Amino acid sequence: MDIFVAKEVTKRYAAQTALNKVSINVPENSIYGLLGPNGAGKTTLIRIINQIIAPDEGELFILGEKLQPKHTALIGYLPEERGLYKKMPVGEQAMYLAQLKGVPKQVALKKLKILFEKFEIQDWWAKNVEDLSKGMQQKVQFIVTIIHEPKLLIFDEPFSGFDPINATLIRDEILELRKNGATVIFSTHNMASVEELCDDIALINKSKKILEGKVSDIKKTYRSNSYEIGYNGYSENLFSLLPGGYTLLEESTADNMLTAKIKLPKDESPNTLLQLVLPHVEVHAFKEVLPSMNDIFIEKVNENRASVSSNLS
Amino acid sequence: MTLLGPLLMAGIFIIPVIIGMKSHTKHDIMVLDETGWFQGKFKNNVDDNGLTFKAFTGTQNAGKDSVKSGKFSSLLYIAKPEGKETPHPIIYSEKQPDINIKNYISKIMNDEVEKTKLTEQGISEDQLKAIKSDVNITTIKINESGQEEKSSTELAMILGYVSSLIIYMFILLYGVQVMRGVTEEKTSRIVEVIISSVKPFELMMGKIFGIALVCLTQVLLWIVLTTTILGVFNTVSPNKLNPTKTEQISNNTNLSATGNQVAKVETPSADKQVGNDILTGLKNVNIVQELSLFILYFLGGYLLYAALFAAIGAAVDSETDTQQFMLPITVPLIISIVAAQAVMQNPDGPLAFWLSIIPFTSPIIMMVRLPFNVPIEQIALSLSLLVVGFLATTWIAAKVYRTGILMYGKKVNYKELWKWIKYKG
């Protein structure tokens, strides 16, 4: 079942349209990436899901029900621009925010203590927020987002500002949340994390959704039947061994190993390529070249831009 | 600050009195009375003015020299006038004598000269005492049930003025605190986290009510503590406090209206009478009614203005930007305080009526009017308009707050705010 569905959501601000009939379906217990260039409308959509603002048109459903104020207890939100009250002690603030989400006081206290230890900030419980470093503050914010064990988590640029160690910590947390049954929506520009974590994505550009689906499916759609060979033992041009119809995409050398990316003719099997080169080289690596989400993103957005301008002209 | 406040407030009243009591520099005034009329008439007045009078025997020039050399501080030289003319005394001194001394001497001499002249006309001293009167008016209110209550005009005026001052101060103080809190939440970005759990309206009202309670607690604490401290001081050194201060305050408030200052030299009996009137008047002031109306107007005024302050806080990005919006909001408050004096002079006039009805000025002006028996219908009208007032400002503020709280980087002006108010959903 889809834990969250948005149907034709539209939002206009005085001069411009922020979202134009955007529909997304978020499968339960998945990690869903919300991608798009700056200003595409991602944050607006996220705010609508969190009921911070209301859409002009369209409907939203969570767990099959129409989205209502009571559902805020099911959602955990970590905004992109995150903050805390600077002069309030950390522990007290965490307790307040937890109770705001409906967690009873005693339960909150216990859970927070456990989480603080897990993230190694237990010594800072009584200190004011302004005494903590940025990374520690962000850990606190993260903890406060997950404290009420929400079914749906929404992170807006969760990795921004974290050093590699803490970024890994967050990443592991996200995976564990999914393991425990939660669904995670996150909006990001960090395509590497999308690559690593996301099951499904939606790509939004200029207030419209231009792509949605399982990451693996999308990649397959964009595959171009290209393969990468890592080899050595052939000092001459490998490409010359190949008949027509093949394209050399890229060639590189590293530590004695040569790598070539070759595009096969349509519907040609990779085995044919192997058979062609095996007699001549020592093959060390062979795999399909799947487009990175980064490339797909760029390609799709440019494509969209081109079609928009061609529509206009 | 809660505890410091009353101490400071009481201090404002007490410290000048204490300093005043102790700090009179001693003046020895040598009297060279060539007329001989004022023998023994200049009584030492060490306590109030630090004055001691001593007779001087010698010439005018010798006296002047003694002043120059510092043997005594001043020489009062009364030359024998021509015939029946009034003597024209001269005070020679190193430093300019203060006005109290001049007035004191002047009064004594005036009394003497008057007495002499009257005696010459054939009126004896006893007859004189009988003539001299000290009319002191006792004010008694007759309320509906025909009961008579002793009231005190001075006390009523002071109470009214002080209550309105308190309301003015606290509305400003705590309204600004609401504004600061809202802007802080906006700049620290915590607001987005919070409004994913609660509605913006709830957050705004929570803030307003929370600060209202703090404010009310502090005001009541101040009133209780200040009156306690003043009361203690009054029992310790009675009558030092009330009459002088009463006169001073009514003098100050009358200053611009009448343009002259009542002389500080009062006859002791008048003092005591006023003091007693005040104390009895105090008992008769309907404390419960006054206090409950005070609280109602205070809350109403606060809620009205706090909503507007919250709206400003939500509209701007930082505290420095709040200045341009604060002015229009504080103008009605300032008008109220300035008009308060005029209202005290004419509590039933049109200015007083309209200002005590309009919600923006009514909390302050109505407080000033209350001691002068405002008809109950006017109070009811004023209170209901106040309620309407704060409901209206809260509604406007909610619209501005909801949009402004997430809006960063946009330079906001009134046109923009108007758009936000019209903007639905």
Report the structural category of chain A. Answer: alpha/beta
List the domain count of chain A as a whole number.
Answer: 2
Mean pLDDT of chain A: 88
Which two chains form the greatest contact, residue counts included?
A-B, 25 and 18 residues
Name of the CATH first level of the largest domain in chain A: Alpha Beta
- What is the fourth-level CATH superfamily of the largest domain in chain A? P-loop containing nucleotide triphosphate hydrolases
Task: Please bin the fraction of helical residues of chain B.
Answer: 55-70%
Which band does the percent of strand residues of chain B land in? Answer: 5-15%
Please tally the helical runs of chain A, counting DSSP H or I stretches of 4 or more residues: 9
Tell me what you see in this structure:
The complex is a heterodimer of chains A (313) and B (425). Chain A is an alpha/beta fold. Chain A has two domains: 2-220, Rossmann fold (3-Layer(aba) Sandwich), CATH 3.40.50.300; 224-289, Alpha-Beta Plaits (2-Layer Sandwich). Chain A has helices at 42-49, 90-100, 105-118, 134-146, 164-179, 191-197, 215-222, 270-277, 293-312, and strands spanning 2-13, 16-27, 31-35, 57-62, 65-66, 75-78, 152-156, 183-187, 200-205, 208-214, 226-232, 247-254, 257-263, 282-289. In chain A, the strands form three sheets. In chain A, strands 6-7-8-3-9-10 form a six-stranded mixed β-sheet, sandwiched between helices. A four-stranded antiparallel β-sheet of chain A has the order 2-1-4-5, with helices on one face. In chain A, a hairpin with a 2-residue loop joins strand 9 and strand 10 (208-214). The longest helix of chain A has 20 residues, at 293-312. Chain B has 425 residues and is an alpha/beta fold. Chain B has two domains: 26-123, Periplasmic binding protein-like II (D-Maltodextrin-Binding Protein, domain 2, 3-Layer(aba) Sandwich), CATH 3.40.190; 154-422, no CATH class. Chain B is 66% helix and 7% strand. Chain B is built from 16 helices and six strands. Chain B has a four-stranded mixed β-sheet with strand order 2-1-3-4. Residues 241-273 of chain B have low confidence and may be disordered. At the A-B interface, strand 6 of A face helix 6 and helix 7 of B.
